[in-house]
Amino acid sequence: MQHAISLAARAEALGEVPVGAVLVLGDEVVGEGWNQVVTSHDPSAHAEVMALRQAGARLGNYRLLDTRLYVTLEPCVMCAGALVHARIGTLIYGASDAKTGAVASVFPVLQDPHHNHRVEVVGGVLAEACSQQLSDFFRRRRAEHKAAKLAARQAPDSVS
């Protein structure tokens, strides 16, 4: 999870929401990713999807059996669906997502009995560190927006 947190910092440095993901097979990292939605102009470029893409290319198969995915934030519906489709063995996530979490918080996608694959789930791993990273990011972002609004209001009118 520590490596996923460092990847989330990479996303943050790009102005992305700081989420990182690491996919492990045995003791080997086979895929890693960080949010790249804004920088790539791709709504599917979530950390989890990026890690799955890298692992699929590396292993030559979209079925990523017996792998463990470490991700700093509870996956959304899109990512949870991708985990089922990729046949991920175990999902280990840090912070819960009370707004769009699709594992335990809002939509229990992985528990749906209609799926042909079950993903084991371990939540709350380094949850405080993962939550703090996200909270700090959004706090800074709100402060930047507030400062920009204030500066715009205080700027002299350029139209006369």
Automatic annotation (TrEMBL):
Its EC number is 3.5.4.33. CDD domains: nucleoside_deaminase. It is an enzyme of class 3 (hydrolase). The active site is at residue 48. PROSITE patterns: CYT_DCMP_DEAMINASES_1, CYT_DCMP_DEAMINASES_2. Residues 1-120 form the CMP/dCMP-type deaminase domain. NCBIfam families: PRK10860.1. Catalyzes the deamination of adenosine to inosine at the wobble position 34 of tRNA(Arg2). It catalyses: adenosine(34) in tRNA + H2O + H(+) = inosine(34) in tRNA + NH4(+). It comes from the Bacteria. This is tRNA-specific adenosine deaminase. Homodimer. Keywords: Hydrolase, Metal-binding, tRNA processing, Zinc. Binds 1 zinc ion per subunit. Zn(2+) binds at residues 46, 76, 79. Belongs to the cytidine and deoxycytidylate deaminase family. ADAT2 subfamily. Its cofactor is Zn(2+).
